Amino acid sequence: MASAPSSATARERDEQVASRSAYRAVIERLSKASVDKHWEPYRDIPWDDPEFAVDPADPRWELPEVDKLGGHPWYRSRPPEVRAAIGLWRVATAMKVGLQFENLLKRGLLNYAYRLPNGSPEFRYVYHETIEEGHHGMMFQEFVNRTGLPIRGMPGPLSLVAQVAPWIPLISTELFFVFVLGGEDPIDHVQRKVLKDERAHHPLEETIMRIHIAEEARHISFARHYLRNRVPRMPAYRRLLLGIISPVILGVMARIMLAPPGPMIRRFRIPARVVAEIYLRNPAAKQEIRDSVGRTRELCAEIGLINPVTRRIWRAMGI
Fold first, then answer.
1. Where, by residue number, does the polypeptide cross the bilayer (predicted)?
2. Angstrom distance (rounded) from CA 146 to CA 267
3. Which helix or strand (DSSP H or E) is residue 27 part of?
4. What is the pLDDT of residues 221-234, one digit of tens each?
5. What is the pTM of this model?
6. What is the rounded distance in angstroms from the CA atom of residue 83 to the CA atom of residue 88?
7. Neighbours of 77 (CB within 10 A)
């Protein structure tokens, strides 16, 4: 069994890719890294190890401080087994939403790769990423299955609307990779914070997170370098349109990835006032949403997507 990374893996470095040769070198490096360092869920995770068994009452499932509910008096007043059950539901929902997002992402990547010309370095990398995202989906679903919980993931109406996402590359590949970052950056941000909080984590959850962070670092890097290379070359009117749409996509995606699941609220009868205090009126929760898209916001500023007009949209979206 290949061991998971022992610490929160460093992010891939950003490089200047103004020239085609520099950009190609980055893509080839990422492709090589996918061969040299990757994991397979049914080979590298000891699912049947007794230490990896999922016990809903295990106190290690209790919510971390990064989730604002974890520090609220209502949550702290619940019995330990209820606190653990709420935390497990939260983790399982995050994984279900993650695999649903990655399902959309894989289909979009394949639509993008379908039209790539012979000799394109992106083709090989996109297939590496698609395979890795397939592995992530399998390990996320396996985790959900082992909880035995009736986890649904995205709300039905949102899931239906999301089916347009795989077709975005046929309209604008640049917009598609903004969408990619909108889903990947918030989860990466939260998982890194969780692993750095010095709490005792369940070994199955920790192993999955470390594998996910390590491989997502390449996926995020590819999207960032693609945008860094392509957006400055876009006609001004298309760049303006992308600048207008990007904060809307990022604001919506961050909230989807970080919002408390409705079924969890109903199952554990979390009072509406508690939800409002924690997630709607809490400045710290609003700051968490802003922080979760911080790196993408900096990238958008760097490549010319933030100007006096679009900055107002970023503010309106709370990011």
1. 240-258
2. 19
3. helix 20-36
4. 999 999 999 999 99
5. 0.91
6. 9
7. 9
